[in-house]
Amino acid sequence: MDPNGSLIFPSQVSTIAPEVDALFDFILYLSIIFFILVVGGTFYFAWKYRKKGEDTFTKDLSHNNMLEVLWTVIPTILVFIIFVWGFKSYMKMTIPPDTSMEIKVTGQKWFWTFNYAEGATTTNELVVPVNQPVRLLMSSNDVIHSFYVPNFRTKMDVLPNRYTQLWFEATETGEYNLFCTEYCGKGHSEMIGKVKVLARADYDAWLAGAGNAGANMKPEEFGAKLYKDKACFTCHSIDGSPLVGPSFKGIFGRTEKMTDGSEITADENYIRESILEPQAKVVQGFQPIMPTYQGVLKDEEIDALIAYFKTLK
Amino acid sequence: MSVATTANYLNAEKGIKSWLFTLDHKRIGLMYLFAVMTSFFLGGVFALLIRLELLHPGQDFFTADTYNQLFTLHGAVMIFLFIIPAIPAALGNFVLPLMLGAKDVAFPRLNLASFYIYVVGALFALYSIVAGAVDTGWTFYTPYSTTTSTSVISMTMGAFILGFSSIFTGVNFIATIHKMRAPGMTWFKMPLMVWALYATSIIQVLATPVLGITLLLLVIERTVGIGIFDPAMGGDPVLFQHFFWFYSHPAVYIMVLPGMGIISELVATFSKKKIFGYKLIAYSSLGIALISFLVWGHHMFTSGQSEFSSMVFSFLTFFVGIPSGIKMFNWLATMYKGRITFEAPMLYTIAFMFLFAIGGFTGIMLGAISIDIHMHDTYFVVAHFHYTMMGGTVIAFLGGLHYWWPKIWGRMYNEKLAKVAWAFIFVGFNVTFFTQFFLGSQGMPRRYYNYLDQYQPLHMYSTYGSWMLGVGFLIMAYYLIYSIYKGPKAPNNPWGALSMEWQTTSPPIQHNFEDQPVLEHEPYDYDTRMVVNDELIKKEDVKEKEDINV
Q1: What is the pTM of this model?
Q2: Which residue spans traverse the membrane (chain B) (predicted)?
Q3: Distances from the Cα of A108 to the Cαs of A145, A231, B120, B232, B258, in angstroms?
């Protein structure tokens, strides 16, 4: 459990979170009162009116208008209050402020891509400044996914044929879990990312550096970082075990049989093609389900990945 | 009392053919009972395997693909093969004509047809297990279900066919209730179980065709490639969700309403008290049936439907909660000044009050849109669903099963073992599912094969709870099956109940009653009638036996 959270909720890290939790607590207290009334009453009556001795006729208590009106009207009023409260918070969750910054989110099997207006692209890591409304414009490349950050108490489905939006304003710096909550197949439970909330200055510095990440790294080190950052590991292991796709261990120079029966030795061109046009040549025994990384990976990043694969003997 | 050895529906005709071609509602009910219990066993095994895999994060026993198939099969088998037909088609088939004082249902051949359609549908569903089991979840959301390589078609065709079986039962019950009540049994003198079955049948007849159409469209999209739901072919995936929930939300009331009907019977019988607020309970069943058609969008608050729709659906959702709440209060008031005994059916009634209250309150939480946004598709919803469906419907079903068991077989089960099994099930259920409320509110998404380490302790307890449940059901299977062969002979009316099914022999004769029964007293007249050792005692005859509870 979240060490900063309560027994019930993870810590509150968005402007809307306290409001959601407050309504939950309100209903929880009401529920406890009614639970004691109804279930406590059940136990009490069960004990008090248990059969003692002889069989007898019982009283003719068939109805009581006053009681029945009361236990219809009181709950009706209470749920009406709950409805209005829940709806008001929902409207706040739904309408992003005009000052929001915008980030494009793409969901696909089984990772998240975030595109910033400034040109930076990240995978499975959404970096945002603290105390700044952020509007996510989201769409999917394949099936339905759902974007969910428990600490923000917010969630929205990500659809293949339209844009959906979600906004939040993070109130504390730190790293928070990001889950896919619409079942999307084999890698559904691996479609987990992070939301990194940074102080404004740190965010600006990160954004400035994000465009030329890897500039001070050796290509194979940069490739190893990309393997993690771009979530290649979700489907490709580096220890030889086949996951959704073939393992990267010893991939460079390996000869594989393709689904069309031909044999191909993985060289630079094959790897580059498989990243940009994954369905072109698929290794036998695997399904043609990898999405294209066209527009996600730059040329120098593909170079770095190839350099990294060469080290995986 | 010697009737149990004479001819009854179980021994009147012999041989396998006399069962397979029977038109007797009691035998058809029993065949249904056998089929749904087999499905329940199968679905239960899937559930135990799911919990086993979730004991630890990462891969323990199954691959991700197998896990995804397991939770899909668990859901599909439990919903379509077990819980929808469990109370109406199995128990309801057996008791409805008896409760009405009728010889059979209105259309006995339709009744048998409904059973065989169920069997065909079940075979399709089972075929999909061997033919690369379907992995979409029981909800078949598009476009995942249009693009996955697993056997979506045979499972959806199975559900499509099962729908007809459900419609046939519904039509049959509606006609039976309208036309075949015993002389003197006006609408407001029917047992409340009959009201509940009536409301259920209306939903079955009106809602099931929509599921049929939806699943057929899905099959057409997959086979012919006409784009209805898949955006790649120009369709709209959210449309599928609207269609699907337009059936599947009313369907949860197909599941729970008959359970509420059973509880109304049990609470009155075991409190020996006139049911409190008869009309309000009857009307609330109809109210639930009506409103249940108007709330489907509360499954879709995060789906991209308009904010306005979400508002309307949230509003209406709260109003389907009110009639359920009313029933709870009425049952509680029925116990007031009763003369309560604690045989197994009453224990299940008390468990129902406990568990269904929790299911209801968490339903109110989920009805509030802002909370649902956080809870949607997490374990909180899984727990809520199981508290209403298993804690509600299945517990009521078990209560009803024990209640009518002596009537069905003419034998008593072992009461002591029944109490032990009840305790295992009640405690095991809470350990399994109460933990899941916390998992969900902490953010654990549903349908996850693997999970973050922070969720492990709660998952572990949930799995331990599932083992307790398993033990409880094993004990139950033992003493129930044992009682069929070796149980002591049951009296005609072991619980001293006043509704009509207890006025015939246990087990009933082939045509239910020797003569057409006439309603002599109402089903809950415990203020003026009681049954002791199968002997009806009237208050006007025994003035000295006045109520001593004053």
Answers
A1: 0.90
A2: 30-50, 70-100, 112-133, 153-175, 195-220, 240-263, 275-296, 308-326, 347-371, 383-405, 417-439, 459-481
A3: 8, 12, 38, 14, 42
Contact criterion met (CB below 8 Å) for A14 and A152: yes
**Residue B549 forms part of a structural domain:** no
A61 closest CB neighbour out of B336, B354, B532: B336
Residues of B in contact with A259 (CB under 8 A): none
Query: B235: nearest CA in chain A?
Result: A161
Name the residue type at position A68. E
Tell me how far apart the alpha carbons of residues B112 and B165 are, in angstroms, rounded to a whole number.
10
Number of domains in chain B: 1
Domain architecture of chain A: domains with CATH: 17-51+58-94 (no CATH), 101-210 (2.60.40.420), 219-311 (1.10.760.10)
For A20, B178, B261, B373, B388, the CA distances from B330, given in Å and listed in that order, are: 32, 26, 13, 33, 18
Q: Is the pLDDT of residue B67 over 80?
A: yes
Is A189 within 8 Å of chain B by CB? yes
Question: How far apart, in Å, are the Cα atoms of B208 and each of B145, B156, B165, B211, B544?
Answer: 20, 13, 10, 5, 55
Name the β-bridge partners of B423: none
Mean pLDDT across the stretch B461-490? Answer: 96
Selected for mutation to probe chain A from B67, B72, B302, B459 (highest A CB count within 10 Å) is: B302
Contact B72, B135 (CB under 8 A): yes
Which residues on adjacent β-strands are paired with residue A236? A242
Per-residue pLDDT band for A212 (boundaries 50, 70, 90) equals low
* Residue B319 Cα, gap to closest chain A Cα (Å): 8
Please report whether residue B550 resides in a domain: no
Q: pLDDT confidence of A85, banded at 50, 70, 90? A: very high
CATH label of the domain that carries residue B456: 1.20.210.10
Q: Residue B3 — very low, low, confident or very high, per pLDDT cuts 50/70/90?
A: very low
Q: Print burial letters for A187-209: b (CB count within 10 Å at least 16), e (below 16).
A: bbbbbbbbbbbbeeeebeebbee
Report the C-alpha gap between B548 and B550 in whole angstroms.
5
pLDDT in tens, B296-323: 999 999 998 999 999 999 999 998 889 9
Chain B CB within 8 Å of residue A288 CB = no
Tens of pLDDT, residue by residue over B532-546, are 988 898 888 876 555
For A36, counting Cβ atoms within 10 Å of its Cβ (0-12 exposed, 13-18 middle, 19+ buried), the class is exposed
- Kindly report the average pLDDT of chain B as a whole number: 93
Give chain A's radius of gyration (CA, Å).
28
**Per the domain annotation, does B429 fall within a domain?**
yes
Shortest CA distance from A70: residue in chain B: B326
Domain region containing B212? 2-541
Q: Is there a contact between A43 and B318 if contact means CB atoms under 8 Å apart?
A: no
Q: Do B231 and A79 touch (CB under 8 A)?
A: no
